[in-house]
Amino acid sequence: MSFLSLLARNRLALAGLIVMALVVLLALVTPLLPLADPDVTNTGNRFLKPFSEGALLGTDHLGRDLLSRLLWGTRLSLAVGFAAAVIAAVLGAAVGIIAGYYGGRVDNLIMRGVDMLMAFPYILLALAIVAALGPGLLNALIAVAAVNIPFFARNIRGITVGIAHKEFVDAAKLAGMGDARIIVSEVLPNVIPVIVIAMSTTVGWMILETAGLSFLGLGSQPPQADLGSMLGEARSALITNPHTSVVPGVMILIIVMAINLLGDGVRDALDPRLRSGALTRPMAATTVRRKGPVPEPEGENVLNLRGLETQFHVKDRIYRAVGGVSWGVKPGECLGIIGESGSGKSVTALSVMGLVASPPGMITGGAVHYKGEDLVGAPYERLRSLRGREVAYIFQDPLATLHPLYKVGDQLVEAIRVHHHVSDKEARAKALGLLKDVRIPNAESRLENYPHEMSGGMRQRVGIAMALANDPEVIIADEPTTALDVTVQAQILSLLDTLRREKGLAIVFITHDFGVVAQLCDRVAVMYAGRIVEEGPTQMVLDAPAHPYTRRLIACVPELGEGKRELHAIPGLPPAVNDLPPGCAFAPRCDKATEACRQGEIALEAHGPRKLRCLFPETELEAAQ
Ligand code: ADP
Ligand code: MG
Known about the structure:
It is built from 22 helices and 13 strands. By secondary structure, it is of the alpha/beta class. It is elongated and about 105 Å long. It binds adenosine-5'-diphosphate and magnesium ion. Pfam families: ABC_tran, BPD_transp_1, oligo_HPY, OppC_N.
């Protein structure tokens, strides 16, 4: 989506944009308008009221036409404010990028200078600069720009330090690029959005500051009008002839309001995370808006989902990420959940413990029974006491889930002490035991490691150890091996398998790789567009996939030593879950689909131990039980 259409979605920002565009347009065409000369005095016509003849907004204490002065003044104020913003942004960003990129002594020298500037109160510094340079609009501009440079320098330096250590900058250095070129082509494009955002939020301030200096008589000099000096001159007639101060005052208000609204909108439109609500603080547990009856638990499953529906409500669109999913796991059992990226696996997993971010997520139907207790809509305190203690998660990227600044030992101790009141010593002993459980060599010394000192496989072992910290009954592993290489993946899988047998754990293993499912899982559920399309014992599904989607997923897995075979990617893309087709969601990509597939709901039906949601199965099915 383009930047403008994103901006337009925010109504206030759009209003700001329109108002600002009008004001700027007005300022641009001012010289062409048939206005009275703004500086010609006519004391005979002092203080004419607005709507007088020949003076639409009235006149000031010297009989000058206020409308004309307002438009010329706005033109000047805008020009000075924007110029100051651009100068401050360019110089501040340059200083910040150089300090952040080179680091070390250069950084120290520059930033201490910046700190010195920042040590003075803002407006005092501006006054001091104008006092030294002498009053005048140009000097006011210089002063306003100068006092804002530290703000930009600090912000941009912070961003640059982060970018200067990124891999793509290292790659550019290895490719033999010079510093100047790296700064221009690698660093700059990454800081420009930040510069634009900082500018859009400070332009309003700078216009106000320039107006402030002019108000004090240090900016524009008579007879030249800018908004600040107009206010200053009207001060003495504030009570007797309020219109002389209201006119420039309202204009300042309009401009600054419009710029600030626009600035907020620009920031949101440039930052996709803000838009999706990721940086708004989610609630402690997913919102529940459940209509319809609550299903009963079934069988001897420890964890049992029935008809679970989770949606994301973003503006007026509804994403049905999980559309009625049912599955269960017994103690000691491993259930695989497989499907392409975006099929709703993670959202299903997170819904179990109410971990889907709300807003925009909400659970709109179904039930999640843990040992017979419905967790959907359970009080937050109850969920919290179960999270990690009874149902634990392992995520894909352990580097992102481990805190970079704490030693892994301390993080394990913390995980243990969330749920158990034990002494530090006991917790430490337990942490050591956990690291040994997950087969980390030299466990004692590893406790003292920071996450970045470990390899990917080691880190994921720590992730598993944390999940095991409170002896949970169920572990939900969301693509835990996707970021690892094949040998490490095999080690992690066999580790999980052993742990499951030793501790009788129920494991829900999410993956997009049928090879992994074959190694580890007793049963597998295939998800497509938020629903299960086929479920059954792993071997049965692997040997004879019944759903065309399952067959094609399996056909994507290469096998060693099977000779030459073409690997077929599945053509097309999964459907967007805010706009699902009626009938089978896979029909548009399926080579067997007929009209019947595109009409009406297709049920998930049991055929022996297998369940299937398809009208034209790929294989002979057992009779329904
Ligand atoms: P995966 O199967 O790859 O784990 P997910 O469960 O993460 O897929 O996502 C399922 C669907 O949910 C995606 O197609 C996406 O459209 C939708 N979704 C996930 N998070 C959000 C969100 N914050 N806002 C809107 N839609 C979302
Ligand atoms: Mg996922």
